[in-house]
Structure prediction request, 384 residues.
Amino acid sequence: MKIKIIGSGITGVTTAYYLSKNNHQVTILDERRYPGMATSYANGCQISASNSETWNSWSNVKKASKWLFKKDAPLLISLKPSLSKYSWFLKFINSIPSRNINTLETCKMAINSNKLYQEIAQDENIEYDVVKKGILHIYKNKNELNLARKINLIYKNAGLERWEVNKNEIKNIEPKIYGKNIIGGFYNTFDYTGDIHKFCIQLSSVLRNKYNVTFKKQHVTNIKKELLDTDLIIICAGIGSKKLAHGIGENLSIYPVKGYSITINNPGEPAPWTSLLDDEEKIVTARLGANRLRIAGTAEFTGYNTDIKWERIRPLIKWAEYNFPNINTEDIKPWAGLRPMTPNMMPIVKRSKYLNNVYYNTGHGHLGWTLSAFTGKKISDLLL
Ligand SMILES: Cc1cc2nc3c(=O)[nH]c(=O)nc-3n(C[C@H](O)[C@H](O)[C@H](O)COP(=O)(O)OP(=O)(O)OC[C@H]3O[C@@H](n4cnc5c(N)ncnc54)[C@H](O)[C@@H]3O)c2cc1C
Prediction:
């Protein structure tokens, strides 16, 4: 079949991989010049089944309302009226009863995806600064730790082995951490980290050279017109998916939830190698080889803009300097990206309601790097 994929982020390139391996003739259209330049550029880099917990809970709603007027809080919500934002929040609240089942489902997808990435990297010789030292979740608050214990039972049911660690064990796992206020944590060695952008670039080159995938720089506005010279279209356009779907009369509930990262170049010997997740601050870390440390986090509901605001970057630097007091923060590269977030935090992997030859693989939210190998394969299996 002749297939067009819209978007060359992580969802687009993994989808193209599985389809072209099944002998489909694939073209990827993207308005950007290079693959992986939007949200798949400088994210937290964790391939993390242990971060499968969906955000739909009353305790998160309560926290959000407390943070509403604090400029440097982990979550920022603009109060400007917006119909799409408010209807998204309503659906978010309506999804609270499905939180446990969605967390379980996400964790299962993530476990599958983790293995698929290892297969792709091995089969196609892809090097993307992988660090396999597990992911350590840290807690400074008793309530949060108790909540993590409950979530861990769901992860266990999904097949993820993650265990509780005390303060001393945390120090043994990551000796560089200052850890003054840490009261406990959870650790697993199944999850790992790797540079999403490098992965997208290298997989794209494999797609071009080995699987004859064509890349075209093009801003797509009209899906029906694009269908004239192809058998099928798959929309993998991240936050752009909503507008494309709207063009064929379909309403996808995807909101752009902004996040920030800093890449610390030459962080020095006092920087961590174990990937961390600070659940209360909503901050993750990933070591990208000897010379780079990525720190990412925060969630902002402020519409479609990727402006980098200093008051959102400063907490990430402060976090690094507090937890790793001797780290070198002289050379820092800030970045902001928009998570394509659905209200129930589940990706949209399905055929369009209105056009039989249009599919979606989008809406991966805070876990797009983790889940895309799985959903890319799922779309390809659906077509078989
Ligand atoms: C701060 C931050 C930290 C994160 N950390 C993690 C993490 O640690 N682990 C994890 O699993 N996930 C993480 N994520 C989430 C993850 O980065 C995203 O879910 C993922 O990158 C989304 O990939 P995508 O392919 O759907 O979208 P994108 O990477 O945004 O790709 C979409 C592509 O579609 C193109 N496009 C859109 N509209 C059109 C159009 N009309 N015509 C042509 N082209 C179009 C765009 O140019 C773009 O290249 C993080 C996100 C953020 C912001």
